[in-house]
Amino acid sequence: MLKTVILPLSLLMLTLSVQASRIDQEPIKVIEPATGLNTAMVELGKNLWFDPRLSKSNAISCNSCHNLATGGVDNLPSSIGHQWTIGPINSPTVLNAEYNFVQFWNGRAKDLKAQASGPIDNPKEMAFTHQLAVETVASIPAYQTMFTKAFGSKDISIDKVAQAIAEFEKTLRTPNANFDLWLKGDDKALTAKQKAGYQLFKDIGCIACHSGPAVGGQMYQKMGLVKPYKTNNPDTGRAAITNNPSDKHFFKVPTLRNVELTYPYFHDGAIWSLQEAVEIMADVQLGRTLSKDESAKIVAFLQSLTGEQPKVTLPSLPPSTYKTPQPKL
Amino acid sequence: MLKTVILPLSLLMLTLSVQASRIDQEPIKVIEPATGLNTAMVELGKNLWFDPRLSKSNAISCNSCHNLATGGVDNLPSSIGHQWTIGPINSPTVLNAEYNFVQFWNGRAKDLKAQASGPIDNPKEMAFTHQLAVETVASIPAYQTMFTKAFGSKDISIDKVAQAIAEFEKTLRTPNANFDLWLKGDDKALTAKQKAGYQLFKDIGCIACHSGPAVGGQMYQKMGLVKPYKTNNPDTGRAAITNNPSDKHFFKVPTLRNVELTYPYFHDGAIWSLQEAVEIMADVQLGRTLSKDESAKIVAFLQSLTGEQPKVTLPSLPPSTYKTPQPKL
Ligand code: HEC
Ligand code: HEC
Ligand code: HEC
Ligand code: HEC
Ligand SMILES: [Ca+2]
Ligand SMILES: [Ca+2]
Questions:
Q1: Count of domains observed in chain B
Q2: B148: which residues sit within 8 A by CB, 6+ positions away?
Q3: Cytochrome c domain: from which residue to which, for each copy (chains A, B) (predicted)?
């Protein structure tokens, strides 16, 4: 009897110590579900997230380009905006975006709230004005109620719209990826191939840029560090913000969480195959040619970063009133 | 003690008899939640419903024009399709569409299944081909699994795609509208104004065309029966199908369930105000000029037809593979 009690206990302690050590020592950290959010603000933000009335045409919402059914992206090289305008750059995922040290490829917004009002009056995206967006929301009684619940007042401003959307975006984490289960001590959560891929990812230096809970999102780095990256996309990255020529082609290192869902890859959305993206990275960032076997192992590891997708129930958006501005196609 | 038992019982019997009589005698019938559906097929159909890869651009899904967050419509005069093509006619709601005796304004599809493959290869809508849509779905292993669960085989055809989407659409009923609670015997479910509006709706003859569970969807009728309806829309309605000049401007009578959400109104989507739509109907269909008070009462009644909106959790669509055709913008 004593034996059967002691054995599981010692196993448990072993597990706990593996767990503690991996969580402490690995450069990639676990993603936990969001907590401590303002639920009334999340609910309001979810309505705004899905509301196409924040766009001039009333046909484009945040979810059009960051579809929560497809990894928080649109799976297009670059997005389709107002009047089928093709945007200049690939749409990054909003999943786990809260972990980004800044928002946008070139970091021009400091956080989710600062980012969220941008697309609304971007002529290539939602093509509206902040004033009309606020008038639209304010014309709908049910929104006034939601704002009162979230902010204690029915006064509506673009700032509060952005804050509520940002609060909703904070719910968009993807916990319990197989990689996280492994980090927490479950040895069987990764296949041998995935473990080998992760080892390679660390050994050859990918981890220098892609680490932390989001496996990226923590710094700017040059695309084409050791060898130029060939692209037709004229974007200069960070240099457009700093006007410093040495920042040319520096982009925020993207998250690799859910990367198997967020094709096509890179800021130009030119690469459809994850294996090809991995081989390009090794080549242009590290000056290293990977064998097919090596890149396949890394891909297998990257697939272990796909977490539980947020379970989002579509809101029932409150109807417009005679005061609501009508769509302009 | 005896008294307290007998009183509720007799009240109950009174309620039951009101209930039975309203349900039997009123020309509008209760909407009940859908039952007996194939759940594996519903789940598959939901994925297809939200999958923009059924369109040439990979940017347009069924939900783009029949947004389940906005009453199953896009709230535009006419829909935006591939490359921002503005469609020829207003998008009808898919909520309760199963009750329609035929599908489309002119009835050219006999049921939901016959309808569902139409938009995919319509150049103004999803602009794809059925062959490419089937190739797309077949290239994705998780879809093969879903087809096997739903149909017992992983063979994929446009016919099965349509059947699965139709099965999902059958879930899109909106039960428990206040009007239905009243039909079932709850006297307080309608306000006095709504009851007066319903009485008017019956007395002046709206009910002749708008009846049954969907409050419409049971017949074709001429738009402009007693007086021409002025519109810039060239659609001839049923006549385009029958080539019979006497069918000119005959349309399927639309459902009035959730009509407060499905603005703008009529096949041309020209009328934004429900009160104005009601007044036009009285004028052109019945030769009758309503007072503002009368039309307001009817609007109040129509608002009691808004039911519980389907609670739809977004699917997590399975990722494409190297075999999946790429989007063409
Ligand atoms: C028409 C397409 C489109 C729409 C609509 C759109 N976005 Fe974006 N979004 C993009 C693109 C493209 C980028 C990248 C732009 C850049 O970095 O310069 C982006 C970037 C972002 C980022 C930064 C992510 C990162 O990793 O840097 C967030 C967060 C975001 N969008 C949220 C939103 C919200 C919230 C809305 C609605 C209010 C919205 N988007 C509407 C296309 C769109
Ligand atoms: C010196 C920094 C650096 C190193 C080292 C590095 N990366 Fe990257 N990685 C980046 C940057 C910056 C981008 C964004 C480039 C762009 O989009 O133009 C990126 C993008 C990616 C992408 C595409 C993500 C997306 O959503 O578009 C993948 C996949 C990727 N890296 C994997 C790797 C792998 C695997 C390695 C090692 C073989 C690696 N990276 C090494 C900085 C780095
Ligand atoms: C680009 C816009 C657009 C897209 C995409 C679209 N629809 Fe429609 N839908 C319409 C319009 C417009 C009509 C009315 C056409 C007519 O009656 O001639 C319609 C009609 C319908 C009807 C008939 C409803 C009624 O009351 O007669 C159903 C059902 C329907 N669509 C389902 C779907 C499904 C399923 C898909 C995806 C496979 C889809 N729609 C994609 C715009 C669209
Ligand atoms: C003779 C048949 C007939 C009668 C009577 C009739 N309707 Fe209609 N109703 C229709 C038809 C047909 C349409 C579609 C017309 C169109 O879209 O061009 C329609 C459309 C509507 C619409 C717009 C629905 C939508 O989603 O676009 C409303 C609202 C409506 N009717 C309410 C009423 C009311 C209220 C009355 C009585 C005052 C009434 N109807 C009487 C046949 C009728
Ligand atoms: Ca991408
Ligand atoms: Ca309509």
A1: 2
A2: B154
A3: 40-148, 192-306
